[in-house]
């Protein structure tokens, strides 16, 4: 992978990580269009590891953007550990919900690691994920009451939304799409569901990045490309977060459905005629 390809993939990651369109799916499509080699298992593992690691650039952007919230949540959680009074606050409950919600994907991701790596090499899986999960967006928006603000988040909410996040282990589904949809089905306001999606993504994607680090940087060329793409992903993702939070305040996530269906269909057609 050369520097130009690394920059392109960093832009793709930064633009799509927090949009409900599947960053993993877009990266897989981009890698195929660039003709990056996947002939050997080592090459496949290197690309999967590269994808996982550059996501940490997007996560770093989320940490910076939500730094004040993260510090407040950490303080609330630590305060609740030592104080029964603090444990009764909305802030402690929210922090505990985020912590509990982060556990399912860690367990499922580690348990199904080999199966996930296999799925991450197939474009048809991306296409089916993009098209099929779009129906969930429609159902979530139609059934959404949006009568529960962020302060009403409970630990069971965090667990259910965390379980929903596990669906994003299938490329094409979209981590943000899965978590936002699940949050809407739990009655959360759309902005609250989106903010929670960002916060749940931090430990999930950081863990995936650490697991993929060895495969992505097995040689100096791989390490250089990964570093370039990660920095680019950080810059682009920061702007993407800013834009998405403003977009979801006034738009439904079903606004992304036509794009998802068109892209999924285009992938299937391309595979059929290739």
Give an account of the 3D structure:
The protein is mostly helical and 274 residues long. It is 79% helix and 0% strand. It contains 14 helices and no strands. The mean pLDDT is 83.
Ordered list of secondary-structure elements with their pairings:
Elements: H1 3-16, H2 23-34, H3 41-65, H4 67-82, H5 84-87, H6 90-101, H7 103-111, H8 113-119, H9 123-143, H10 155-166, H11 175-185, H12 190-216, H13 220-248, H14 257-273
Helix pairs in contact: 1-2, 1-13, 2-9, 3-12, 3-13, 4-6, 6-10, 7-10, 9-11, 9-14, 10-11, 11-12, 12-13
Task: Summarize the entry for a quick read.
With 274 residues, the chain is mostly helical. It has 14 helices and no strands.
**Poorly predicted ranges:** none
Fraction in helix: over 70%
Strand % is under 5%
Distance between the first and last residues' Cα = 23 Å
Pairing-aware structural class of the strands and helices? mainly alpha
The DSSP helix count reads 14
**Mean pLDDT metric:** 83
Q: What's the overall geometry?
A: globular
Strand runs, count: 0
Biggest β-sheet: count, sense, barrel?
A: none
What is the rounded Rg?
18 Å
What order do the SSEs take from the amino end to the carboxyl end, as H and E? HHHHHHHHHHHHHH
Defining traits:
single chain; 274 residues; mainly alpha; 14 helices; 0% strand
